[in-house]
Amino acid sequence: MNQRTDTASNANAADIPVTGEELVETYPSYREEADVSLVDLPGRPAETVASETVLQPDLAGPLDHDLYSHQAAALEALADDENVCVATSTASGKTLVYALQIARNYLTAEREGEESTAYVCYPTKALSRDQERELNDLFDDLGLEIDVAVYDGDTERGEPRKRIRAEADVVISNFAGVNTYLHDHDRWARFFSACDLLVIDESHTYTGVHGMHVAWILRRLKRVLAYYGSDPQFVLTSATIGNPGVHSSALIDEPVTVVDEDGSPQGPRDLVLWNPPMRTGGVENGSDVEGGDGKDAISDDATAGASASGASDDDPPERLPATIEAPQVFSHLTYHDAQTLLFTPSRKLAELSIERAGEHRRRRSRYYTNPDRNTALEPYHAGHSRKKRHGTEHQLKNGLLEGVASTNALELGINVGAMDATVQMGYPGQRQSFWQQIGRAGRGERRALSVLVAEHRTLDQYVVSHPEFLLESDVEDAVVDVDNDAVFAQHVRCAADELAIDERDVGEFADRERLEGALEMWRRAGQVRGRLETGVSYTGPPRPQSSISLYATAGQEYEVRLAEGVDEEYDPEMEPLARERVFRDFHEGAVRLHAGQQYEVCAVDHDAPQPSVTVRPTNVDYYTQTRSEVTILDAESEKSREINDTGFDLHYGTGTVLVYHGTYDKVAVHGGKPKDQAIPTDNPPLQMETQLCWLEVPQDVEHHLVEEYREYSVPELESEADLEAIPHIGYVGGLHAAEHAMIGVAPLELTLDKRDLGGLSTLTIDSHLAMDRESTDETQSAAPNAGDDRAPRSIEAARATVRQLANSLEREPASGWFIYDGIEGGLGFSRAIYDEFEALAKRAREHVADCDCGRIDGCPACVMDEQCGNDNMPLHRGAAVDVFDRLLGEGESLEDADVERSERERRPPLFYS
Amino acid sequence: MSNGDGSSLLALPPAVAERSIPTLEDVRDYFDPDGVWVIGPNREPKAAARARQVFDPPVVHPPLGDAGPVQRHDLGEVSVVTVQNGAVLEDAAEVLAADGRRDGTPSVLVCDDVTTTVRPTALETSLEFAPALAALATEADRESLTVLTGALPATYDRTWHLEHSSGACLGVASSGPESTSDPTDAVAVRVHGLGSVDGYGPARSISSLAISRDESSTSPNGLTIDVETLDADEFGLEAVTGVGPKTAERLEKRSITTRSELLETPLAQLCDLPNVGSTGAERMHAHAEVLETGEPRRLTGEALPGESHRPPLCLDIETDDLSPTIIWQVGVYDPVDDSYRAFVERTDPADPGPVLEAFCDWLLGTHPDRALCTWNGWRFDYRHLGAFVNGHVPHYASEWESIPKFDLYKWVTDGNALLPGRTNRLEDVSNALGYEGRETGLDGAATAAAYQRFMRTGAELEWDRHEAYCEDDCRALWHVYERVREAPRASGSGSGSVSRAGTGDRDKTEGARTSSESESESEQVGLDSF
Question: Are residues B215 and B201 in the same domain?
Fold first, then answer.
């Protein structure tokens, strides 16, 4: 257990090697005062309850400490046969709650000569192994011989598995495993028959599509448990979220008692909101830059878009990206003896950050005079092998490492001990994640330091200039939508495979109408047989469970292999890769940094029964950055409405999103300059059927705005696309900017991560819509790739298709933008945007209009987006504001534009994602 | 012709049609079809051309439309009207109408564009070209149509009731003898798949449809369709264990194209092939010989369970479906005194308890020390018996647990023996080993469907026939057991696993990462899980 009962209250600043103030004072670089805010978060003392008051003597005796008040409250509710959700801070001893309940059940069963088992699910396999050790240690301390075993994809097959099924008291797994093992539930008859407790640890992670699947897997599990006569109690543990009760009940379909009055002690915290300094104009005055030209020596792809237009003197100043600044702060803190955890948004950045932290010390060697001081820094992410990750966890816990740069893989409860400090590379997108991550720093009541280094992004800039957004408002809700029929239907097939679906399932698994609907669908598809009265069986291809994709990735994962003839010591021991990641980051020729070693991808086998990526170690001065482009085809409207009599039509529906990771660039590791550009990856598109919403701008508004902004031009675009000056560029830049802004502010209005959204602005909405059958047939037979696979193979072919469709229209197409759910099948985000469109548009308008970047094409804080597939070009803030004004009915009435002139000019079929 | 009576239509996936000529000849000799359809909807002229070199009866590839968009072929009892694509469906009206007027010959349509589309967001499955099919039926003055399509797997057989005027779906029923034709002013379109069945090996599956007239049948057109599906790599050299596509290609380059030629090839020559080795070569020879002679062969020194003691009791169960709610029949054949016992629930299908109670009473009371033997029991019989005993007669759970159980199928596929027969189905294997069963005309699915009807409507089964079916399986199992017991051991037999392709176990994931649950016994679809 990670329980600390030392409430020694010498909570003063001396407890940490570096305070927030000291960080600001000692950091070797000039900064504006306004760029840093220091917030002092107070701590709180522990509230405890004597364990004897809650626990029976044979448990309270061996337990050598008191219980925190929330642990006691949860155990009391469990004694009253309630389901419990414990929603308290990181390291507040949540594991102890269910561990003690398992112990109570075990002792009760033992007295009666029976068995009592518990099924404990963690979100990751790493956490499972970690908690297996924790639980074993605790049961040892309590003198109980409770057999705890992890049973997941890494568990050795054959006898070891058989033994666990036959003997274990506590089985630890994850929901992907539960999903799979339900197929063979008869093998688990003993374990299921005796199951008294189901534990869902880190339950807040089950949100969105992942949460929907988990909710249905739980319903399937409950069905099978009921078949074996079990009706277990639930314990859920959750990080602090806005709606622990609603969320828990939605997951398990039962009432839940929430325990969220945190009784664990918490030290005070220095929270530093750190906006990186400007990097142009004046060049870091007063700093002791060595060997640099004033610009940062290492650039990153995240800045490529922002600096695309070149840094001339006329350009407005631009901040250093967090991808550069955060590793430097991390480097600085570790140098000053603060054991620090740096959170990065990607695996690549976790690896790169270690390099950059070292580079920072070397470049500033006048300041960091002892080069060998505290250099034990390691990257950590799920791409590393289990052995490597466990080693890093162990070294961190034992103080052998000064710092670790990690993805959110360390956000969850793996016990690595408490840090002195955390640094966040950018705002993690949600307050819930933000608090969970900074909770990694702070031991008991000692002071802790947490630094949030802001990124260019809309949200980051908003957060650092509005700290109250973090401090005063509630954390987000976790959303689980069990009404989603697409997800439901998949689990109906599995349920029918596990046990025949019959009348007993009506009302329990789903209401009659919905159940009948799903069964009729599968019956017509030839996948189930039989009726509810006598039971419906699954008759489709074997193991429908394998078609459940819990991680929003499709298909089989790719094994990473070392090229033949390469010394085994170079084996990267990479975990398997999702198909999407292979297409984006592991195409042939890609250069990836992994655990400090560069690798080049020399082969990718997509078609083998076990797809694979072959890599060999390399040593080059560049890394690769894939260029991705997106388009939409075959959108079909299901609902539509006009916005406030403005002539703007809004649609909701479904369509196909095509993602082309078609080319890549080689980018210098140092200096960040592109070396070779647009090298083909030869990858076909990734195709996704999803939900979308789109806005069609009325013709008169379009004509007016095209006229108004016809002088605007983006030379790069024109030369690249081989186009003549296009009068529409300013206007389409406005659409593009408005689309980015809508996506950027969506998380402020709706519960979602904007990375789950995608967008596309286009002058020819109609070309992206599904055509009626006849015209589709025509274009298909005319298209170069007619045949089985309808998707155009390359983005060029996709453009040709769009052009062809535009040309075949009888009427003038409408312009506008799409926003879609970035997940196969869709999650309902587009639908929520469709419903809340006006409120979002209002926020987006303010956001774009109020930004003081003073640039026509905006800045990363307003309309530039690091996820942009088109290098943030073209963008036009003014035109975006005008579009929003018209759509909100707030613009001045339209003057008569030279409409005829616009109509004469055939619009180019441009689209930007 | 291997399956049933009537006209036999062989559906070849294009990938299969491009296999070697000797392999196609093997397919031809096995199925002996009246007509061959190289299925669409993709245009694969090369595949069709290759098939035409081998097969004498007409070879049709619908997407070619080489004899016009609508072609008609007489296939003995039925005529087959092939429609090039969905857009020209209505052009078939004239031919269909003419067939209708002509005395008697029923016709079936083949159109590979007809398929189902599942829309999970709307909980809806629709039939593509439903309006065209309804219009076609109206124009040809027919109340029912039978459409075969390569776009659906050969296991697909549903009757869509469509509104005459619009093609709107009024309901879908399973086809065949169970079909209940309800709406009257509707067109009944029976849609039957021709395509590969999911879960077979990567080589795809081949299906043969025996279409016959059955006046008593309530199904549309009064047609009975019997399907036989085999994994494509049960043919030619690849039928031999250890011979995959690459090795087959290499052998063919050395002019070794049939199994008998393989047998004549010296082992030394086979050893030299890449990835074969001496054990592999011996195994190839052994299996080729088994297939050619029909004589089983043991590969290991592993004793057949029960070989040295009293022989096991041969067990088979019947359920109401693949996810059973009841095990309504347990049959046990005792080879010691050649006796057979059946435990059958004939009165109360709502209570699974009594049959199990009676079975357990008898088994534990009279044969407390005997082992059980099944064919694929670990995936079916033992699996469900275990769960049901646990749930309904829990007082016998631990006794049931401790009874020695043996699965002959698993023992064979674990590499202990090679058996003749195109598939591992008990029926195929026992027939190949000379077992002469009683012709009950039933299979697992049919007997389950009959019991389901009994559960739903109380309509009694022909109990004797259904009990005879179960008994037959138990006796067939013993026949196979004996033949394996007497089989000679292959010379130089080592151990090692022989897995025949055709397992549907490719895509299992578990844990946060992908891996396959190889511990589970292979899940062979062709095995017919009942």
Answer: yes
